[in-house]
């Protein structure tokens, strides 16, 4: 015989049972811990909050109710118990998941102008100096085609840098179409296999994934950037694994309404001191990198109403909605 109490006790999230007046009838172990942490008055305020919502008053179950309490953020699900004037209340603390995003928004809006300009101008000095030197030499020998090629190369570097900076500062206009994400990934991996002979690429794909609405060009840009970062991390020798599946992330995809794409490599992973600011502009683990690639990738995925994050163990994860807007 199924012991329902044992099942509730095994769930890591706080679960409470309350009546229509908000009186607490049952708490699982996690809920008891939260009650001790918050104190009874604040805990009661948290579990009673959904009862104030009109849909709940009319007997409906409601999921994903956001409640802020003393600087912490909670997602609350409330469900009616059939035949009884009782409700089950499930609480998830999402504070730590939203802090990074809030911090990034704040950093993005008040980022030190002097610092970012100094980095930009420093990066520009290289191609500008190269163009200037080549131009001076070209005055002495106007027929030197190699110098002209050098000027074109440095000009393209400068143009690429300016384009990346501009991309970060403007809104993204996506051209979404229905795509098989595996076809997009395979195309990128095929090109990488040709370029990097000493790397073993592994594909672990979930064949049941549905086609999703994405901007193919922009998602290709994101995946290419992540894979190339992995290539550099393992110094072009080792393995890179690309895995897909349905995400059941407890915060970002509790209903299984997003797919995941994970890119993992055989390297040491991102240093701990960089992980919290990994997607800030000008943050880079490369000696010669400006730190715009991951910022751009984050912005593209965000525009798709998805999420890009580093989940540890040398693994980056992309979450994309299954039923995205066209």
Give a description of the structure.
Strands 2-1-5-4-3 form a five-stranded antiparallel beta sheet, sandwiched between helices. The protein has helices at 4-10, 29-38, 40-48, 54-57, 95-110, 113-140, 145-169, 181-195, 216-233, 272-275, 293-303, and strands spanning 15-19, 24-27, 62-69, 72-81, 86-93, 177-179, 199-204, 212-214, 238-247, 258-265, 307-312, 315-321. 45% of the residues lie in helices and 24% in strands. α2 (29-38) crosses α3 (40-48). It is built from eleven helices and twelve strands. It has three domains: 4-93, PAS domain (Beta-Lactamase); 111-169, Orthogonal Bundle (Helix Hairpins); 177-321, 2-Layer Sandwich (Heat Shock Protein 90). The longest helix is centred in the middle third of the chain and has 28 residues, at 113-140. With 326 residues, the protein is an alpha+beta fold. A hairpin with a 2-residue loop joins β3 and β4 (72-81).
Brief write-up:
With 326 residues, the protein is α+β, with helices and mostly antiparallel strands.
Shape: elongated
- Termini, distance in Å? 48 Å
Counting structural domains, the number is 3
Helix/sheet category:
alpha+beta
Unreliable sequence segments: 109-114
Strand order of the largest sheet: 2-1-5-4-3
Individual helix count: 11
């Amino acid at each position: 015989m199924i012991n329902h109490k044992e099942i509730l006790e095994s769930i890591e999230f706080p679960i409470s049972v309350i009546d229509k007046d908000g009186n607490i009838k049952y708490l699982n172990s996690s809920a008891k811990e939260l009650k001790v942490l918050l104190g009874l008055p604040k805990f009661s305020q948290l579990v009673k909050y959904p009862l104030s919502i009109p849909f709940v008053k009319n007997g409906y179950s409601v999921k994903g109710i956001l409640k802020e309490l003393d600087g912490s953020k909670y997602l609350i699900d409330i469900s009616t118990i059939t035949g009884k004037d009782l409700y089950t209340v499930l609480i998830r603390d999402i504070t730590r998941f939203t802090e990074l995003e809030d911090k990034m928004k704040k950093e993005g809006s008040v980022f030190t102008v002097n610092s970012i300009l100094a980095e930009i101008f420093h990066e520009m000095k290289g191609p500008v100096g190269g163009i200037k030197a080549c131009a001076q030499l070209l005055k002495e020998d106007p027929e030197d085609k190699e110098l002209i090629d050098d000027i074109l190369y440095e000009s393209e570097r400068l143009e690429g840098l300016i384009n990346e900076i501009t991309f970060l500062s403007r809104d993204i206009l996506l051209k979404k179409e229905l795509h098989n994400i595996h076809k997009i990934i395979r195309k990128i991996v095929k090109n990488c296999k040709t370029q990097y002979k000493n790397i073993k690429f592994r594909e672990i794909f979930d064949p049941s994934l549905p086609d999703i609405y994405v901007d193919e060009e922009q998602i290709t840009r994101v995946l290419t950037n992540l894979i190339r970062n992995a290539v550099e991390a393992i110094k072009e020798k080792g393995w890179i694994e690309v895995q897909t599946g349905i995400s059941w992330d407890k915060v970002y995809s509790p209903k299984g309404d997003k797919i995941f794409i994970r890119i993992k490599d055989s390297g040491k992973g991102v240093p701990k001191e960089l992980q919290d600011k990994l997607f800030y502009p000008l943050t880079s683990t490369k000696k010669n990198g400006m730190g715009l690639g991951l910022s751009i990738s984050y912005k593209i995925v965000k525009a798709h109403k998805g999420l890009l994050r580093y989940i540890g163990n040398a693994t980056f994860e992309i979450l994309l909605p299954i039923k995205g807007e066209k």
